[in-house]
Specification:
Layout lengths: L1 H25 L2 E2 H8 L3 H14 L2 E6 L11 E5 L5 E7 L3 E8 L4 E8 L5 H18 L6 E8 L2 E2 L4 E3 L10 H9 L3 E5 H12 L9 E6 L3 E7 L2 E3 L13 E6 L7 E6 L11 E4 L12 E2 L13 E2 L4
Parallel strand pairs: 4-7, 7-10, 11-16
Antiparallel strand pairs: 1-3, 2-3, 4-5, 5-6, 8-9, 11-12, 12-13, 14-15, 17-18
Helix pairs in contact: 1-3, 2-3
Length: 311
């Protein structure tokens, strides 16, 4: 009996997440379209939508156009942009890129913070300043919902395992900011985030099942999409084209000195349908197919948990 109840609860949770994903990815969208896309009956979709609306995650925009068959005009649904916001940081070589996004993924603000030649212990206060500034300017209902970091390095199980350009000095970003702000903190490789963005938000790529997104900066990384899913590989190391660069120099009597860059860790890619270079790609949580599931939140008394899923 207990197992049956548990299975029903899990199915209900999966369905409510699916409905939320439909609204997020296809807004504005009607309940009849959600029903058709998910192969769920209309009454089930209406019940799930009402649960999301009661929590404040979604809102109604008004009536859409009637179908060619006539009948009532559908009510269009969208993510509630006034629900709350996320703070997202990209650790660049010379700058920290800072983006504030509402729950729908819209950019609320963007800035760069100079971080050249400073260590992680000096970077932490800069991040805190940006978070506090966003809080002071915010007018959403539930304020800060989560924090994400795009890392130029290897991420495994939401932890940094290799960071070639920034010594983390033993600091755990998830624990540090999670304890300080009592919100979910998500870490992901920046090339992986670029690949997910291309998969989910570039209409030209919707027909592609496999793609590689190349990120070129001080190093070179790649995000791999295979069968429409992000492929991380063992320990999150897939796509690490060049962890480091070896510079060889040559000099002759008649030629000026030249430098030859040699990649120490080449990646063999048999088939690439699309390759796109990025100088920088935003790290919006919502661009990472954010899922929201009810969970106790002691700080605000609200029911909120953000779960990260890139596949």
């Amino acid at each position: 009996m207990a197992g049956t109840i548990r299975n029903r609860m899990q199915l209900h949770q999966q369905n409510i997440q699916s409905v939320l994903a439909q609204v997020f990815n296809h807004q504005p969208i009607s309940r009849i379209e959600i029903s058709r896309n998910l192969a769920l009956n209309k009454s089930t979709v209406s019940s799930l939508y009402n649960a999301l609306k009661e929590e404040g995650y979604v809102e109604e925009l008004g009536e859409g156009a009637a179908s060619t068959a006539g009948g009532r005009k559908p009510v269009l649904l969208a993510i509630n942009r006034r629900y709350g916001y996320t703070m997202n940081f990209d650790f660049g070589y010379r700058h920290i890129h800072v983006m504030k996004n509402n729950l729908s993924g819209d950019i609320m603000s963007y800035t760069q913070v100079d971080a050249k030649d400073i260590g992680i212990k000096d970077i932490l206060p800069l991040i805190e300043t940006q978070i506090e500034k966003a809080e002071n300017e915010d007018q959403t209902k539930h304020n800060l919902l989560g924090i994400s970091f795009a890392i130029h390095g290897t991420i495994d199980d939401n932890a940094i395992t290799y960071s070639p350009f920034l010594d983390m000095e033993g600091i755990d970003l998830v624990q540090y900011f999670g304890d300080k702000y009592d919100v979910p903190v998500l870490l992901e490789n920046e090339a992986n985030l670029a690949a997910v963005f291309e998969r989910d938000f570039n209409d030209e790529n919707q027909r592609l099942s496999n793609a590689v997104t190349i990120s070129i900066h001080r190093g070179i990384g790649a995000g791999l999409i295979i069968n429409k899913k992000l492929y991380r590989g063992a320990h999150g190391e897939a796509g690490e084209i060049g962890r480091s660069l070896r510079l060889a120099t040559t000099s002759t009597k008649h030629h000026a000195r030249s430098k030859i860059t040699v990649l120490k860790m080449p990646l063999s890619i048999r088939s690439v349908r699309r390759v796109k270079a990025h100088r920088w790609t935003g790290t919006k949580l919502s661009n990472c197919t954010t899922k929201m599931t009810p969970s106790p939140n002691a700080s605000s008394g609200r029911l909120l948990k953000i779960r990260h899923e890139l596949s």
